[in-house]
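Q: For a teaching handout, I want to show students what a protein-ligand complex looks like in token form. Below are the inputs, and the small molecule is zinc ion. Please produce the holo structure.
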Amino acid sequence: MSRGAQIANRVETTMNILRITRQKWLTVLILLGLTLVARNSAYGQSAERPEPSDWFAGDPHVHGGIGCGRSNETEMLSPEQLLEMMKVNNLAVISVLADAGNGEIKYADQDLGMINGQDNAVSTTQRIVHWDAEWHYDPQGVTFERKMIGGHLVLLGLKQRGQPFAQYTHPIFEWAKKQGAIAGFAHLQYLPFAFYPPPDGIPQSLDCCAPLEYPVETALESASFLMEDVHGSDSALQAYYRILNTGFRPGLAAGTDYSCNDNEPLGTLLTYVRIPDGRLTYDQWIDGLAKGRTVVSRNAHNEFLDLKVNETAQPGDEIRLQGHGPVQVRVEWRSLRGDLGRIELVQDGSVVASQTAEVAPDSPAVFETTLTFHRSGWLAARRMDWQTGHRTHTGAVFVIVNGAPIRASAADAHFFVNWIDNLLKQTSAGGEWAEFLSKDRQGAQERYRKARAIFLRREAEARRQGAP
Ligand SMILES: [Zn+2]
Ligand SMILES: [Zn+2]
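A: Here is the structure, written as tokens, with zinc ion included.
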């Protein structure tokens, strides 16, 4: 074999080895890819996310119409564009809300026509795009002929379009319920933060969106959830805590209200919902939201708080104790980015334990402790930031002692009695808000009185339990 032939031979051998190796590598890569695809499609999510596989991140408050931050646009966002916009925060679900209210979103008719109870055709195994509606009439701000003080409702799971109207929210809840849909109050962040009494957090003036009927329709079990949106705020939590303290269990939700949020990406505020069997469908997702199986984030899809009580109970679950006793609490703060913050445990509205912690993508922070419940109550975890308040917050886990109902605060029950007294006074003839109930005063005030009686009864029950 000549030197040239030897070289040629060696080159060919090397090439063959390389070819074999390349083939092997290709096989390995294809198998790896298939494994990943199989894993991801089973969970309906892609790999880069801080939450466990049975939790699904979504934005239940998105608008694609022309208004707010899109006032100068000429076209509604298409389903394809919305699907693309979900990728920024790797969302599994979005609820695209048509304007079932005053029609401030242009071409609302076209938007309403998209509601059919089905996932939009662009949806994939990983991402659900689903049309639903927001019902809203502002008393101030964007005003039209019809005005409303009750608050904006997010209606999820509608089967068909509609533009029902009443001067109070209850008939709208009923309209949604008849279709098998759920509904809740948006914009909890616009409520005043009760810090300096008086007026101690009871709205005395009107704005575009504050949900003035949230205590009424939560107490009368119409509202399935309370939502913070746009940029969120801790006053939403205060409202949530007070409602939990009086024994009601609405889900806690968060969404962007895109494009009314300075056009920040979808999912900048988001809701994680746990679906116990890990199979994502829109119905399962909103059902979990109504059942309180949620964690909300104001830090997009970057972090998650995993709360477990007595090892297995998670947000929305209930633990029953015979006699008062301790519960074991474990919180894991997982983050896709390095961060420093504080994990806090909230029991019946008060922070009872906390730990400052640092996280990195592969190193979550774990906080474990024991809490004692002397009477029925609830607990939740939150991750706080020194400047901006809560970044993530879990839904509550309920702890029932000796079968007694949760009456954790007489003061909070009394707060709602005062709230409704103010509503009744302001909306009665001669009151400052009387015009808003010009047609439906009787129906609305009947609801107010019914709810007031419930809070009054619960105040007395809380005192009997020895609650503050
Ligand atoms: Zn709204
Ligand atoms: Zn909205």
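A: Two things your students might notice: Residues 134, 136, 152, 186-187, 209 surround zinc ion (ligand 1) (CB under 6 Å). The longest strand covers residues 325-335.
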